[in-house]
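Forum > Structural Biology > Help requests

Title: Can anyone predict the 3D structure of YibL family ribosome-associated protein?

Hi all, first post here. I have the sequence for YibL family ribosome-associated protein but no way to get a structure on my laptop. I'd be grateful if someone could post the structure tokens.
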Amino acid sequence: MSTKQELQNITNRLDQFQRKLDSAKTRGDQELVTKFADEIEKLSKKAHVIKSKQTYDLNKERKKLKAMAFSREITKAEQADIGKLKKSVKGLVVVHPMTKLGKFLELNVMTGYAPKPF
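Reply #1:
Sure, ran it for you. Structure tokens for YibL family ribosome-associated protein below:
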């Protein structure tokens, strides 16, 4: 299971337990209130761990890209035949501004990162 799907499942379960907690509070069932409160706390911690790992991985990838010797904007002509460009430049990594990594890097245009100028 991917981390994105796992995080979504945890969020869904959190919502479900929150609704059950609210209904248990209205009924005054203290035993269920403590049970659901504990479950919510455990799931919240688990969700936080997953989000922290995602941020860590993004930061690691950002550092790896920033450490590359060369980066520049990919022109529209190069974007039209991106496969040819990737084959001609060894080690090229192309980052689109709408991806998670692109947003994390605060890119405005499609950018290529490579160990050598291209």
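The radius of gyration is 22 Å. The chain has a mean pLDDT of 94.
Shout if anything looks off.
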